[in-house]
Amino acid sequence: MEVYSGKQQSKMTTEAIVARRYKRWISALIISMIIGGAAIGYRVIEGLSVTNLSSFVPWGAWVALYIFFVGLSAGAFLLSTLIFVFGMEQYEKVGRYALFTALICMVVALTFILLDLGRMDRAFNAMTYWNVLSVLSWEVRFYLIYMVLLSVELWFAMRTDLIRMAKTTGGLKGKLADILRLGSEDLSERSEKKDHRWMKILGMIGIPIAIIGVHGGTGTLFAAVAAQPYWNSPLFPVIFVVSALVSGTALLIAMYAVQRKAANKSVDLQLIKGLTMLMIFFLVIDLGLEFYEFLVAGLSMKPEKIEILSVMFTSSMSWSFWGIQIFLGAVVPIFLVFNRRTRDSVKWLTAASVLVVIGIIGVRFNIVVPTQVVQSMSPLPHAEYAPNWVEWFSALGVVSMGLLLYSIGVKLLPLETTNEEVSSYE
Amino acid sequence: MGKTHDLIIDQSRWNGEEILKSSKYDTALGLNMAEDARKLADGHISEEAFVAKYQESVEKEFQQTLAVQANETDHSGVRWGMVIDLRKCVGCETCTVSCKAENRTPPGVSYNQVFVKEEGTFPNTSRTNIARPCMHCDKPPCASVCPVRATYKADNGIVIQDADRCIGCRYCMVACPYGARTFDFGESYDEMTGYEQVQAPEHGMDRGKREDGKAPVGTVRKCNFCFHRLERGEEPACVETCIGDARYFGDLNDPDSTVSQLAASDRAFRLKESAGTQPRVYYLR
Ligand code: SF4
Ligand code: SF4
Q: What's the gap in Å between A118 CA and the centre of ligand 2?
C-alpha cells in the first residue's frame, strides 16, 4: 500500500502542534456557534418573520440545507455498506467515519427542519399524529428508525475497541468507552465475527431504508407535489438518491483527508484516488439523469415547466445553477480528477471533493427555490427569494454544531480503524 | 363646535328604563329580558334556560308563547359550495377587503384574492378578473400532504385548517395549486388601535386577543368559508358584500339550490380541473 506523506510535513511534528490545532479548530467552531446561536435566538423569539421567507416562497435555504444533509447522510451510509456489506476492503479506513458522519448529518438535517417550523414547540406533533398519505409523515418516522439503525451499527463496529479502551485508556475517554460498551466484555474472535455479521445484517436492512425510506423518500416528498410541475417527475427521487451518493462520497473524502492532515498523519493516496473515481462515477450518472430531466421537460413544451427552467437557467438566480451546480460542482472537479497534473495530488483531489459538496448545496437550492419563484396562479409576478443574514448565520451555527459534535466524537470514540483490522472483514 | 357635538351625543344616549316606562308593558320585565337576551347572545345562558325563565311572564304580559326556536342552522347533510359569476365580477376586491375585516387577518395573510389579467392591445383588449378564495377541494392536496392532519376535509365540504395542531411546516402551501394558503408571520396592523383586541371566531373557536399562544401565529391560514357565519345562518362575508352580486353560496348536495343549478349550467367551470383537486368553487364564464 502506497502511503502519501506530505512534502511539507515537518520533522518537528509533535503532538503539541496537533493538540493546538485541535484547540483552535474547536474554539473557531464555538465562536461560530455563538454567532449562529444569536441569529437562532433572534429567529426563535421573533418568529419566521425575520427571515426572507414569504407566503410566496414558503420554503427557503433551511429546507434546501435539510435535504442537503439528509443526502450527505444517506450517501455516507451507502458508502459504508460498500465496506460492511459488500466487503470492499479498500475503503475500510473510512467505514466508521462514514457511519458516524451519517449520524451527525441527520442530527444537522433535523435541526434545520426544526428551525424551519412555524411552531417549533409543536414539533412533537409530527410523531403524535400521523397521516398515511403524507410523505413527510412517513419521513419523520424513517429518519428516526434510520438514526437508531446507524447508532446500533456504529456500536457493533466499535464494540471491541470500546472494551479495549475502557480497560486501557484513562480519563474521560476511557470512562465514556466504559459506558458505551454497555456492559459488553467479550473480546473473542467469535464475538468479533458476530459483530461483523450484525453489521452486515444491519447494513443490508439499512440499504432499502436509506434509499427508499430516507433519501428516495425525501425526493418523493417533493416529487409527489402535483402543484409544482418541476418536482412532479418520477425521476426526481432517483436523482435525489444518486446525488446523495455523490455528495456523501465527496464529503467522506474531504473529511478523511483533512482530518488526517490536521492530525499530521499519512493520507492514503490510493484510497483517495479510488474514492474520487467513485465520486466522479456517481456525478456523471447524476448529470446524465438531470440532463434528461431537463431535456424531457423542455421538449414536452409544458409552459409551466419551461417557465421554471427559464428561471433556473436565465434569471438573476441562474448563477446558482451555472456557477455552483455546473461549473464549481461538476466541471472543475471532473477536470481536477482527470488532469495529469492534479490527479495524483491529495490536495487537488480533496479540493475536487470539497467543490463537489458545494456543488450539491447548489443542486439542493435549485431544487427548492426556482420552482416556488414561479407562482401557481399565473397572473402573479415572479416572487423573489434569497436567504438573508438570519438564515445564513443560523445555518452557520447549525453546521458548526454538527462539526463540533463530529470533532468531539472523533476525539473520544474509536472511529479510526487500525491497519491490522482492515483485512478482517469478509 | 365642541358643544354642539356633545349635545347631539348626549341627546342620542337613550335611557332604556325611561323608554320602557313610556310603554304599557312591565318595565322590570323588559329590562330583565333585555339583559338576559344579551347573555343569551353571548352564549352565557342557553336558549332553553331563557325560555324557561320568561315563558310564564311573557304569556301573561304579552299573550304570546315563548318557545325554543327550531334550530334553523341544522346543517347536517349539507355540502357547501360557491359559484362566482365572472361576468358580474368587476374586480373591485370588495370580497378581499370584507374577508380581511371579517376574519381580521393580519398583514400578509389574505384568504381571498382577485387576480386580474388584461390581454390584447387597444382597442382589442379583454380583462379577466378571477376572485380566488380557497377552493375547498374535494380531493385537497393540502390535506393529503399535511404530516399531522392539521388540515382535513370535513363532512360539510369545508377544508378545515386546525390552527391548534398545525406545526407550520408549510408543506400544504407548496402543495396547493391555487396559492390559497398564507403563512401567519405574526405581523399585525399595529398602526390600528385595538388591532390585537379580538380575533375572528374561525371554525367557531373564540380565540380572544391576538396574543402569544392563542393566536394562529406561526401556522398556515386559509379561507374557511366563514364557517362561524354559516353556523349563524349567514352567508360568507365575501358573498354578502360582493357589489356585483357575483357570488352565490349554498348547498351543492341539494339539486334545487341556486348553486347546484348554476354549477350545472354550461357556463360553469372550475380552476385547474386537470389538477384533479375537484374544487367546490365553480366559476361562470
Ligand atoms: S384550494 Fe388549496 S388550500 Fe383550498 S382545499 Fe384546495 S388545495 Fe387546499
Ligand atoms: S403547515 Fe400546518 S397545515 Fe400545512 S402541512 Fe404543515 S402542519 Fe399541515
A: 9
Tell me the pLDDT tens digit for each residue of B10-37: 777 667 788 888 888 888 888 888 888 8
**Nearest ligand for residue B225 CA:** 1
Round to whole Å and give the CA distance between A38 and A31.
11
- The domain over range A17-412 is classified in CATH as 1.20.1630.10: yes
Q: Is residue A101 within 8 angstroms of chain B, CB to CB?
A: no
Among A370, A382, A238, CA closest to A317: A370
Query: Are the Cβ atoms of B108 and A54 closer than 8 angstroms?
Result: yes
The CB-side HSE value for A75 (13 A sphere, CA atoms) comes to 30
Q: C-alpha B281: how far from its chain's center?
A: 15
Strand ranges inside B175-239, DSSP E: 182-183, 220-221
**Share of chain A residues as helix, strand and coil, in percent rounded to the nearest 5:** 75, 0, 25
pLDDT of A379 reads 78
C-alpha separations of A57 from A169, A371, A374, A375 in Å: 53, 9, 9, 9
**Which residues make Cβ contacts (< 8 Å) with residue A405, sequence separation at least 6?**
A104, A107
Q: Domain-by-domain residue ranges, chain A? A: 17-412
How close is the Cα of B178 to the center of ligand 1, in Å?
A: 7
Q: Which of A43, A46, A48, A388 should one mutate to test binding to chain B, selecting the residue with the greatest count of B CBs within 10 A? A: A48
Q: Is B96 helix (H, G, I), strand (E, B) or coil?
A: helix
Tell me the best of B111, B152, B159 to mutate to test the pocket of ligand 1, counting ligand atoms within 8 Å of each CB and taking the most. B159
Q: What distance in Å separates residue B247's CA from the closest CA in chain A?
A: 20
Topology of domain B80-284, per CATH? Answer: Alpha-Beta Plaits (3.30.70)
| Residues 6+ positions from B95 with CB-CB distance below 8 Å | B112, B114, B131, B133, B237, B238, B241, B242, B247
Instruction: Kindly report the backbone phi and psi dihedral angles of residue B90, in degrees, each rounded to the nearest multiple of 5, phi listed first.
Output: -105, 0
Judge contact between B89 and B246, C-beta under 8 A: yes
What burial letters (b/e) apply to A20-43, b meaning 16+ CB within 10 Å?
eeeeeeeeebeebbeebbebbeeb
Rounded alpha-carbon distances, angstroms, from residue A128 to A94, A115, B159, B216: 37, 19, 22, 20
Q: What is the pLDDT of residues A309-347, one digit of tens each?
A: 999 999 888 999 999 999 999 999 999 999 999 888 999
Contact A321/A366 with Cβ under 8 angstroms? yes
Q: CA B58: distance to chain centroid?
A: 34
Closest CA to A144 of A122, A118, A120, A126: A126
Residue B45 burial by Cβ neighbours in a 10 Å radius (0-12, 13-18, 19+): middle
Of A284-288, A408-412, B11-15, B41-45, the poorest mean pLDDT is in B11-15
Rounded CA separation B249/B237 (Å): 11
Instruction: List, in order, residues 6 or more apart from A292 with CB less than 8 Å away.
Output: A235
Angle formed by the axes of helices A235-262 and A95-116, to 10°?
120
DSSP A141: H
| DSSP run (H or E) holding A85 | none
Residue with grid cell 438573508, as numbered in its chain: A388
C-alpha cell of residue A314: 436565465
- Domain limits of chain B? 2-62, 80-284
